[in-house]
Amino acid sequence: xxxxxxxxxxxxxxxxxxxxxxxxxVTLVRKAQEFPEWMLRRDEDSGEMSTVLGNSLDGEYNVxxxxxxxxxxCGAFWxxxxxxxxxxxxxxxxxxxxxxVSPELxxxxxxxxxxxTARKMVGEGEG
Length: 127
Fold this sequence. Notes:
By secondary structure, this protein is an alpha+beta fold. Helix content is about 25%, strand content about 25%. It has three helices and five strands. The strands form two sheets. A three-stranded mixed beta sheet has the order 4-1-5. A hairpin with a 6-residue loop joins strand 2 and strand 3. It is globular, with a radius of gyration of 19 Å. About 15% of the residues are buried. The mean pLDDT is about 90.
């Protein structure tokens, strides 16, 4: 559950679907806090590290302001065209768009600690 989804987010998604008739879907996204260029793999035997994308961590990749923004799907909702969904059973389809929401509004409640975070946000405490 993502309880802080707002009606205006649904309205924005609907407007995007109307504007972009060649899109199959629209969903909510948040700006990612991590950078793919900085993500690492660790060799379990030796402990050696390498970047997932194969880039160096030096030069232009060393400064976060040089890196492009990337986004992460929030999972609050997907607005889909029925025909596209029936032809290709995918929530995203071939082409899709994203409504950007503030990361602090994205609380995906999957675990007990997620519920505690949501309760704090609405001032209910730990209860």
